[in-house]
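Protein modeling request. Please complete all fields; requests missing the sequence field cannot be processed.
Requester role: graduate student
Desired output: 3D structure, token encoding
Chains: 1
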Amino acid sequence: MTATILTARTDASALSFLRDAVKGMRRVRERSAARAMLLGLDERMLTDIGLTRNDVLNGRF
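Delivered output (61 residues):
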């Protein structure tokens, strides 16, 4: 069996940190937009796609 050791780790650059932060902000905005759209649907439409109003309000979709 061969063991692999990570000895040459690269430091996280400021650019990669900034890129990850922007991706996270985009993801939050997309989820917020999706939640707003789903809240516009009535109960029957939500149950047709397998969600409840509570799921949408708490972000479990």
